[in-house]
Amino acid sequence: MKLFAVFGNPIKHSKSPIIHQLFAKQTGIKQNYKRISVPIYNFKNEIFYFFKNGGVGANITSPFKIDAYKICHILTSRAKKSGAVNTIKMTKSGKILGDNTDGIGLLKDLQNIKFIQPKSKILIVGAGGATKGIIYPLIKFGCIITIVNRTYQNAKNIVEFFQTKYLNCLRLEDLFNNLINNKKYNLIINATSSGIQGNIPNIPSSIIKSNIFYYDLYYRDSLTPFLKWCYDLGGEKISDGIGMLVEQAAYSFCFWHGIMPDTKIVIKKIKNLINFNKISLKKD
Fold first, then answer.
1. Annotated catalytic residue: which of 15, 30, 65, 70?
2. Is 65 in the active site?
3. What is the pLDDT of residues 109-154, one digit of tens each?
4. All domains of the chain, ordered by start, with CATH?
5. Whose CA is closest to 226, among 241, 215, 234, 242?
6. Dihedrals φ, ψ of 35, to 5°?
7. Beta-carbon neighbour count of residue 164 at 10 Å?
8. Which of 17, 2, 1 is nearest to 256 (CA)?
9. Of 46, 53, 95, 172, which one has the fewest beta carbons inside 10 Å?
């Protein structure tokens, strides 16, 4: 049975093994898919060990997507344009081939839930590998993107990498000033890992409006801290990253096996598995 895995830190919360199990059952493909927790500075050794011991393909999650990009011998067009990798496989020639399915997975989910349209103005909070991986498909779709990050230089580096007029960045303090100047966004995406520690990103509460969509790449068994914060402040159009997780996983599955699974069925099953009942969305 072919061996696949998802690499990350932390990784215990990952629903990827369940999703790929559902894809395998749906398509009749037999595979063994597991989680692998990787020490922060040991990704390269862990991934080479995995392939040396029978691994065929892997998903890469936070914080190793740029590390994965660097160890690939060959990159797909999507990966080259993203500068980050979340899906890899070993080719017959013994080369590591890297792809990025995050951006196309996110775009597909945003379209499914009607959170996006061409010319949408998007604010992305965070400037790590997750952000880098989702930008290209959004720009290609026609969106205008602004990045804000605690470390301004990291956001600036991403803007310089893509070199397009449809992408810019702000200093964190400028985000507060731009609110005064009536800077408006249609969609705000939290691409930070703040939710893993139970925190929210450092953005002004006055940016939360009832007519803006809020999306968190992170997910958990209840509302993420970012989405609960948005909702409590009147931002009721919210979604976590479960849909994106399933959509990007489907593109990964196709990358490995050449078959595209049905995502709608799997998204419904995964959402049913996750307990959202602990937090009521009903206002008093």
1. 65
2. yes
3. 999 999 999 999 999 999 998 899 999 999 999 999 999 999 999 9
4. 2-101+245-273 (3.40.50.10860), 103-242 (3.40.50.720)
5. 215
6. -90, 140
7. 14
8. 2
9. 53
